[in-house]
Design a protein that fits this description.
This protein has eleven helices and six strands. By secondary structure, the protein is of the alpha/beta class. The chain has a domain of 173 residues: Rossmann fold. The chain has a six-stranded parallel sheet with strand order 3-2-1-4-5-6, sandwiched between helices. α5 links the parallel β2 and β3. The two termini are 26 Å apart. The model has no long low-confidence stretch (mean pLDDT 90).
Length: 260
């Protein structure tokens, strides 16, 4: 007997992939047509323009920390997307942007992101490569240096977006002591309580990943975000259906809904 080309036991996975792909394409198409796709308001992202404007009015710099992880970390990549939007707005306002890095690979990427953002904002002349620099790979050595920047430069706005560990409270408390408005975001669950306590706004978990689509409103990003949200809703509904069917003893259907 020959080997099967397709296992019917995985039919639910195939259906899931087809539905997910269809939703992505549909919402991307709708976004490109100009349809307004609803995305719930995220307080921390709504405050980005206000935070940049505050620094501009006070004549003080903006401090942006892209996390302490490597370029391969998804939180770092999400942070770089937000950095692009912040850098573009800061360039338009001619506000100084300081980006100290703890990873030697992240640093040149940040430089290119900010340089491209300044060009996109029509102000390539305000780009300052010397304000985007590498400090050290040492966790607390880096934190000590950044705290020194906060005390000396007294930035009006601090962004802490990316992956953080035990240094999160030290950074946030020092920034709060200088009177800066602070916007933080991380997918490190253990560090969220410290940011929530010491910062003005905090992006929690997936809000960090959604930030790029939220700020840019680009059809591809926005459509992808909506497609993912609807897919999660469908999966949640299927899991709930499986639980209900299992509760009433309909095992065959319950297994179909809950196994993958």
């Amino acid at each position: 007997m020959g080997q099967e080309w397709f296992s019917l036991d995985r039919l639910n996975v195939l259906i899931g992939v087809v539905v997910y792909t269809a939703l992505l394409l549909y919402f991307i198409y709708q976004a490109k047509k100009g349809k307004e796709l609803f995305v719930r308001k995220i307080a921390g992202l709504e405050a980005v323009d206000e935070a940049i404007g505050r620094a501009t009015e006070m004549g003080k710099p903006i401090l942006y920390i892209p996390g302490l992880s490597t370029i391969s970390d998804v939180a770092t990549l999400a942070s770089l997307n937000i950095l692009s939007k912040v850098a573009k707005k800061a360039a338009q306002y001619e506000t100084r942007l300081i980006v100290p890095c703890t990873d030697p690979i992240v640093m040149p990427v940040c430089q290119e992101v900010v340089k491209a953002a300044c060009l996109d904002g029509g102000r390539p002349d305000v780009y300052r490569e010397e304000d985007i620099y590498y400090i050290t790979y040492s966790q607390f050595g880096y934190v000590a240096a950044v705290d020194g920047i906060m005390v000396r430069e007294k930035p009006a706005t601090n962004f802490f977006l990316g992956m953080f560990w035990a240094e999160s409270l030290i950074l946030a408390e020092t920034g709060a002591s200088t009177g800066a408005i602070q916007i933080a975001g991380t997918d490190a669950i253990s560090q969220l309580p410290f940011f929530i306590t010491a910062c003005d706004y905090t992006l929690i978990g997936e809000e960090l990943y959604a930030a790029s689509a939220y700020l840019s409103r680009e059809p591809l990003s926005l459509g992808s975000l909506k497609g993912q949200d609807w897919t999660k809703l469908i999966i949640g509904g299927l899991v709930l259906t499986g639980v209900i069917l299992s509760t009433f003893g309909l095992r065959f259907f319950a297994n179909y809904f809950t196994t993958g």
